[in-house]
Design brief:
The protein has one domain. By secondary structure, the chain is of the alpha+beta class. About 35% of the residues lie in helices and about 30% in strands. The relative contact order is 0.17. The strands form 2 sheets. It has a 6-stranded mixed beta sheet with strand order 1-2-3-5-6-9.
């Protein structure tokens, strides 16, 4: 389903929101710690999650994160971080550092291959080393 232009999937206990990119410049606009990007969640989705007592999860190319709608409201009030999009959608922007990382991220296939090669080379080097004791 789409809520205020954002792709949202209802997974029973939580709503899963798919983002293409976070708001990279949020730290400058809202005076957060340097280089902390923001996640913008539609105010309509937050209200709906509060009403049905569900959590909100965000998935984007760099990981998956989770937060409660109550925490989003608290952080938005604290930082006064409401962003009005061009289409009039009100986005509640919160720092990524306040979200909880969900699940274990699988390494990319090339990273796995590189790790295997590295471990093999280390093993070979250890075999060639003279035994001191």
């Amino acid at each position: 389903m789409r809520i205020s232009g954002q792709i949202v999937v209802d997974l029973g206990t939580h709503y899963l929101l798919k983002l293409r990119q976070p708001y990279w410049g949020a730290w400058q606009q809202y005076n957060w710690e340097p280089r902390i990007e923001g996640f913008g969640v539609s105010a309509v989705l937050v209200e709906k999650a509060e009403r049905f007592n569900k959590r909100i999860q965000i998935i984007f190319p760099y990981g998956q994160y989770e937060i409660s709608p109550k925490k989003i409201r608290e952080l938005t009030a604290k930082y006064d971080s409401v962003y009005l999009a061009r289409d009039g959608t009100e986005l509640l922007v919160t720092p990524r550092s306040s979200w909880n990382k969900v699940g274990k991220q699988n390494p990319r296939p090339e990273e796995k291959r590189n790790q295997t090669i590295r471990e093999k080379k280390i093993g070979e080097a250890r075999e060639k080393m003279p035994k001191l004791f």
